[in-house]
Design brief:
CATH superfamily: Glutaredoxin
Number of strands: 4
CATH class: Alpha Beta
Distance between the termini: 28 Å
Shape: globular
Order of helices and strands: HEHEHEEHHH
Helix content: 25-40%
Length: 147
């Protein structure tokens, strides 16, 4: 919950760069998740970890033991950082984008206009409707093996 303003800021600032946020929600009640997505204006893909909550298939596969946990994955699907937040996360994102030839300086969330989602981004309603019923797709993605 405390990271949502920062995440919204990153989505807005990095909309024109090779960057994406993927969330995993551990709430056991899927209806609560839908409400939270709308309430927090979450416009990025957010997967449900299943009825097992924090012991669901995604957190188990990725060895997540605390929430929230962040993974920064590069363009090759390699996990480059884990558990970064705030300025350290911003700096790591800037570094990875620089490796791809994009010079970016990430601003603090309070310095970014909280305008509606940019064109081409899903609205919270669209994001919620497009959520897969299963976590299978994410769990079998190239970066899904944290080892």
């Amino acid at each position: 919950m405390g990271m949502y303003p920062h995440e919204r800021s990153l989505v807005r600032q990095l909309a024109d760069y090779p960057f994406a946020i993927v969330g995993v929600n551990s709430d056991r009640d899927r209806e609560k998740i839908k409400a939270k997505i709308a309430e927090e204006n979450i416009s990025w893909r957010s997967f449900w970890n299943g009825t097992e909550g924090t012991r669901g298939p995604i957190s188990t596969k990725w060895n997540v033991s605390s929430w929230p946990t962040t993974f920064l994955i590069d363009a090759e699907g390699i996990i480059r950082h884990r558990r970064l937040r705030g300025d350290r996360l911003n700096e790591a994102i800037e570094t990875l984008l620089a490796e791809l030839g994009h010079e970016v300086t990430i601003k603090e969330p309070n310095e970014v206009d909280e305008a509606p989602a940019l064109a081409g981004q899903e609205s919270p309603e669209d994001a919620e409707e497009s959520q897969p019923e299963s976590t299978e797709d994410l769990a079998t993605d190239r970066a899904a093996d944290p080892a």
